[in-house]
Design a protein that fits this description.
The complex is a heterodimer of chains A (77) and B (369).
Chain A lengths: L1 H24 L2 H22 L8 H5 L3 H11 L1
Chain B lengths: L8 H13 L2 H4 L1 H8 L3 H25 L5 H9 L1 H32 L7 H18 L1 H25 L18 H12 L23 H27 L9 H7 L2 E2 L3 E2 L2 H30 L5 H18 L4 H42 L1
The chains are: A mainly alpha (77), B mainly alpha (369).
């Protein structure tokens, strides 16, 4: 678990450090959008570190199409 | 990316060719031959034809509004609120699309060259590279593409020529032992990946210099034809050497490279070939990340594109390590769910916008008359 925390933290630190100068100059709108992306990244980071694959993610949405897509493939073959 | 940048029509076609061929040349032969056997080349031709139709639709929109991206065309045709709502699934799928390409790179390394290295490390290194590339902007990407594309295509031909002593033409028959069904199933896979993905280019076609906008159609069709030809020869090459086994062995071109043996002088060169093939994955991911960043910035009416390259790449990285982490689930996603998802989230919105634009142009013409 520690290695995963370090993995996410180091990458996040590098990203924020690289963007800090531009972030300070950005408008409020850009700052909100950047913050929203960081919030999503934080959530996904927790999913990754805690190995909570069952938590809601994009795959949860996409898997809703598994049934119809499977039927479509079967009908083709 | 923060200054207005434009590229030539040929550069856009090169990016298009790289995007369409990049990862598919390594990944496509195996699922296609697995589903359709020796009829895989027929499936590719069917999927390619569908791709050509989609390209025609995309170019129709471009001809109507050469300065507008798909998002702006959508806003013009449907209005701001419906367009913004339509963008939600497109952007979500694009996020996973970038993550999916990198997941495939991770799997490729895991099962071929870097078996002991954690996949998340490969993903992180890949994302650092693609985010810096996307941050550098379209002009830099376009300039890089010519050399790297030449390198990739050259290595593909080198592999196919060096294994030519192993070709067995008998493996190309029978073409349809179980009827047309398996061929259609394989065509469905190839249509989803890579052909329906070409829609994303509708977001960056306005980056072509205005004076060259007339040449775009011709160049993109040439690029699509070259892509079809490259995929076709890679499928035929895999079938000619591996025969029925080509469906069971992933990364056919890499497997072919392993078989190269010329008088004990040239052998075991698959790693060199493998890294050149990875260039295709890297470039496809970079182009798509650039398109994603540009689309998000345009959608949310933001100014500084450079600022968003890293956080978007970071979200994509975390998606790649938290979704479809098992090989079987990723394969099911790509081969079964992805074509339908692409149709719903990429193709359908574009067809809708094209249909509305077409109807509006007819109505406008009639009103004038």
């Amino acid at each position: 678990m520690l290695d995963k925390i370090a993995y996410v933290a180091v990458l996040a630190f590098v990203m924020v450090t690289a963007d800090l100068k531009q972030y300070r100059l950005a408008r409020f709108r850009e700052k909100v959008a950047y913050g929203s992306l960081l919030a999503v990244a934080l959530y996904l980071g927790i999913v990754f570190v805690a190995r909570r694959q069952e938590w809601p993610n994009l795959s949860t949405l996409f898997d809703l199409l598994k049934g119809p897509a499977g039927k479509l493939v079967k009908s083709l073959s | 990316m923060n200054r207005p940048a434009s590229i030539s029509s040929i550069q856009m076609a090169t990016l298009f060719l790289f995007f369409m061929t990049g990862s598919s040349i390594v990944l496509i032969p195996s699922p296609l031959t697995h589903a359709a056997g020796a009829g895989a080349w027929l499936s590719l031709i069917i999927a390619w034809s569908m791709g050509a139709l989609l390209l025609a639709c995309l170019l129709y929109l471009y001809r109507k509004n050469p300065d507008l991206s798909l998002l702006s065309s959508c806003r013009l045709a449907l209005g701001t609120i419906p367009a913004n709502l339509l963008m939600i699934p497109i952007v979500l799928v694009m996020f996973w699309n970038v993550a999916g390409i990198v997941s495939e790179i991770g799997l490729f390394f895991k099962s071929t060259m870097l078996k002991e290295t954690p996949t998340s490390v490969v993903h992180a290194l890949m994302f650092i590279m693609i985010s810096l590339t996307a941050r550098a902007g379209i002009v830099v990407i376009a300039r890089m593409s010519a050399l790297l594309l030449t390198l990739m295509v050259a290595f593909i031909f080198i592999v196919l020529i060096m294994v030519s002593n192993l070709y067995q033409p008998d493996f190309l028959l029978p073409v349809l032992p179980n009827g047309i069904g398996p061929v259609l199933q394989a065509a469905y896979i190839a249509y989803g990946f890579p052909y329906s993905e070409l829609i994303v280019f509708a977001f960056i076609l306005p980056l072509v210099r205005r004076e060259e906008s007339r040449k775009v159609s011709k160049h993109l069709y040439i690029a699509l034809s070259v892509n079809g030809l490259l995929l076709l020869i890679s499928i035929l090459g895999s079938l000619l050497v591996l025969g029925p086994l080509s469906g069971d062995l992933k990364y056919s071109l890499f497997q072919l490279a392993r078989l190269i043996f010329i008088r004990e002088i040239i052998e075991r060169i698959e790693s060199v070939i493998g890294f050149s093939l990875i260039v295709g994955f890297y470039f496809k991911a970079s182009i798509l990340l650039f398109i994603l960043v540009r689309t998000v910035v345009e959608w949310l009416d933001l100014r500084d594109e450079r600022l968003f390259a890293l956080p978007i790449a970071f979200v994509c990285l975390l998606l790649s390590v938290t979704t479809y982490t098992k090989e079987s689930s990723l394969n099911e996603m790509v081969n079964v769910v992805w074509p339908l998802l692409d149709n719903l989230c990429y193709v359908l919105p574009m067809l809708l916008v094209a249909a509305v634009t077409f109807l509006r142009s007819i109505l406008t013409r009639r009103t004038r008359d």
